[in-house]
Amino acid sequence: MKRLSLLLVICLILGIFTGCGGTGTENDVKKDEDQTETVTDAPKEGGTLVVGMTGDPSTYNPDYQADGYLQPIAENIFNRLIKVTNNQEIVPDLAKSYKVSEDGKEITFYLNEDVKWHDGEPFSSADVKFTFDTIISQDGQLAGSLTSVNEITTPDDNTVVFKLKDNDSSLLGYLAWDACYIMPKHIYENTDWSTNPANQNPVGTGPFKFVSHQKGVSVTLERNEDYWGDRAYLDKVVFSIIPDANTAVQALYNGELDILGVEPPLSEAQNFESDTNLKVGRQYWPSRYYMFFNIKDSIFKDIKLRQAVSLGMDKDDIIKKALKGIGEKSNTAMTPLYEWALNTTDVFPERDVEKAIQLIESAGYTKNSDGMYFSATIDVFNVEPFTDIATILKDNLKDIGVDVKINMMEEAAWDEKVWYGRNYDFSLLAGYQGPDPGALAPRFSTDGLINLMGYSNSKVDEALKKGGSLVKQEERAPYYQEAQKYIVEDVPIVPISEYISIAPYQSYVEGHPTSEGIIDKTGFHEYTYVWLNK
């Protein structure tokens, strides 16, 4: 599998990835008691929606390589077999239904009929088989998550069967993910899909068709008049490329953008909500800000010190000051969006300075002449909000006698020191926790790909393995809850805040993906149901 830089992974995590299960969105924030989201007029066809974005896509093949700039566009050009909506539920897409066998080793998808590619060619099960065979054989983004797939068969044009080596309960979540768009076999077959010309002139089955890409300026899509599903209201969607987020915010205020589309500075949140020309959607993701320790080769090998730092952290202070109030305190070992698998009994404790000091002293530490018990360095990305979180955390831990040195680093340096080198004391990340509770495994299993902590607990390994081998939620849940219990006890990480993104847009925009009645139909950047009430 291609080795991505961790910061790129994080950008994708925060901007585009979602999971399945639970309730994921909060409806658009109202400016006052009288303003509501009730639409009194019938949706109107026509018009051009202008959405901000900060850079040019490098490719229009969403399955080949990670490209955060492509994902908002890909959601509108392509379809998946199944997809995850803004309320974090899996719903049909190109597959109108699916069936999982009793033993969990076969998943049969029944496809929508009369679907056509944008060039008029018919879509069939052969495209699905080709797509996933290619992802696996040509090292696509999700190749490492499809290792359970043994064979894909196509009994007829409208049926696809995934035959698995072993039961893989997380597979459906990955198939609904952004790197599993179905690609046209008739265009990509017998070519190098990394260099195929269609990577710059994409052909999909989605509600909008690609028109043009003017580098550094915009990407334009037009409505697919022959779309097999609900036809879009808009004539066009233009993604306006504005590299600087602050400039994009100003363009929104000036009316040059209909939807901001980019991650805004957290400091703007209050301004958006007080502007009567705007609505503000909020999206809850299965993602969170968290602190993690090097428990293998640092001072934090001592669990008492990890426990003390956890108790010394003031999460409310961090959310208020560093995250500008945009977040919800995290105390569970797993994102609460997967409520069916969540352990709400074994949770990380609230701040307790006195107990933290007792733990440090019981570990054999005494204060030095500066009144500190020990020093530790936190390595963080040199970007907000990580720098602000680290600064507030430094102040928090001073209260328990821990001297925190902050090492702010560029992405490449952080990757080299922390991601690859594992040469650090503790650090911060914002990490995706989906698309299924099985995502605990790569973080907390002994051999997990994202286990940066050096964490190893055989009981956790066994529980996560068992949870991933079963089919029904009620059977899986106890194992994930057991794993969470040990994670809380061992403190390899300390969760800080659940990730919430804010999405400001003009008040005349109706059918926004975060709005009432739409959240259960689309992903975060899909504009099928958007219309302009002006």
Automatic annotation (TrEMBL):
GO MF annotation terms: peptide transmembrane transporter activity
Signal peptide residue numbers: 1-21
Superkingdom of the source species: Bacteria
Pfam families from the UniProt entry: SBP_bac_5
Assigned keywords, A-Z: Signal
All residue ranges annotated as the Solute-binding protein family domain in the record: 89-438
Any one Gene Ontology cellular component term annotated for this protein: periplasmic space
Organism: Paratissierella segnis
Protein name stated in the entry: ABC transporter substrate-binding protein
Alphabetical list of InterPro entries matching this protein: Peptide/Ni-bd, SBP_5, SBP_5_dom
GO biological process: peptide transport
